[in-house]
Amino acid sequence: MTTDKSAPAGGSIMVVGGGISGLTTALEAAEVGYEVLLIEKEPSLGGRVSQLKQYFPKLCPPTCGLEINYKRVKDNPRIKVITMAEVEKVEGNAGNYTVEVKISPRYVNENCTACGECAKVCESEISNEFNFGMDRRKAAYLPHNMAFPMRYVMAPSMGADDREKCKEACKYDAIDFDMQEKTLDFKVGAIVWATGWKPYDAARIDNLGFGRYQNIITNMMLERMASLNGPTQGKILRPSDDKAPETIAFAQCAGSRDENHLPYCSYICCMASLKHATYLREQYPDAKIYIYYIDLRTPGRKYENFYSNLKKDENVFFIKGKVAEVGEESGTGNVTLVAEDTLSGEKIRQTVDMLVLATGMQPNASVDKPNADLKYNADGFIVNDFKKGGMFAAGCANKPADVVTSNQNATGMALKAIQTLVRR
C-alpha cells in the first residue's frame, strides 16, 4: 500500500456513493459552482438503478436517467470521480474534514477504449456479481454495458497466463498489472453519504427455502433476468430447467416487517412486484401470477392507478396472507407453498413453477459502517443531524425510498452540504 499525504483536496464537498442519489447530489452541487469529489466503491457509477430493466414512475430503462447524468458529469470540470474507492476514515468537523480514501487497483488505465480484445483472449472466469451470481463472466470484464467510466477491469484472481495474454491483446497499452492499492487523504468541507442499499440476504429467511430449492429466486434476480443485458438476455426462465414458467407466486415482505430480520417496511417491494407482474404478462400472456401480501403499499395517485390496472388482469391474483413455509415437489422442481388467506381464514396450499421472494432493502451503512462520527437509527439507516451539520445521508442511506424520492432527498442534501460551506 502506498500513502499520499499531499493529495489535492479535489473539492469542497465529498459525495460517497455513485448511485442515482450520489449522482444527483454531486450534479446539483457542482452545477451551482461547487467543487465535488465523487467516491464510488464499484468499478462503475450507477448503483442499483443500473441493474434494473425499468424504474418508476415512468418505467424508464436505466439508460434514460443514467446516460444524461453521465454526460453531465463528464462535461462538468468541477466533478472529480474516483471509482474502486472506499472511505477508510473521517476526521475533523463541519467545514474541515480530512478523509482517508483507499483506492483498489483496476489494472487498466485511461488508455482503455473498451474494445474488448482482452476479454476475447482471457480464459478464466469469475462469478458475475452484477447478475447476483446467476452466470459467470471473464476475469477481464466491462462492469456492464452502461459502465461509467467505460473501462475494463482485470480481476485480481486472474492467473499469470491470462495476464500475459491480455497485455499482448491490448493495442493501447491500457493494461498495467503493476498498479498498487493506494491511500489518499482529501480535505473537504462537507460529506454526503449516498451509500445506498443491498437486497436483504434471502438465505437467512429459513422458512422460505432460498438456496435450498432452485426455483426460488429474489425480486432483484428476476429484475436481472428481465433485463436485456442480464444472464438470460431478457427472458424470464425457471432456473432448474430454463422452462418458461406457467405459474409464478410472489411472497411479499420476505424478511421485511419481521423482528427477526428487517423490522421495517422497505417501501419499494410492493411496487417492484407489481412491475414484475407486468414483465411476466408481456412475456407469458397465459401465465398465472399469484401475489401473497400482508398489505399493499402503493403511495400516490400514479402508483395506485398502476395497481388498479393490474387488478383488472384476470390472470393476476392477489391473496392477503403471508407465505409461511415452502417446499419442493418431488421430481418436478415445482415449489409448494403454504399461506393463510386472512380474508377467508382458509389455509392455502399451492404448487407453482417458480416463487419470487420480494426481499427488502438493507442500508449498506448498516452492514459496513463508515468510520465517521455518524448517528444511526435502530434499523441501521443514517440519521441526519442538521443542527450539527457537516455530514448528511442521502437517498436510501437515510431511509427506504424509490428513485423519485431518493432524487428529491439528494437535491436537499446537496443544499445542506452547500449551506455548511457558506456558513463557515
UniProtKB/TrEMBL annotation:
Keyword list (alphabetical) reads: 4Fe-4S, FAD, Flavoprotein, Iron, Iron-sulfur, Metal-binding, Oxidoreductase
One GO molecular-function annotation for this sequence? Answer: metal ion binding
All copies of domain 4Fe-4S ferredoxin-type, residue ranges: 103-133
Pfam families recorded: NAD_binding_8 (PF13450)
Q: Which cofactor names does the annotation list?
A: FAD
- Database matches in InterPro entries: 4Fe4S_Fe-S-bd (IPR017896), 4Fe4S_Fe_S_CS (IPR017900), FAD/NAD-bd_sf (IPR036188), HdrA-like (IPR039650)
Q: Which family does it belong to?
A: Belongs to the HdrA family.
Give the protein name, as stated in the record: QmoA
Species:
Desulfamplus magnetovallimortis
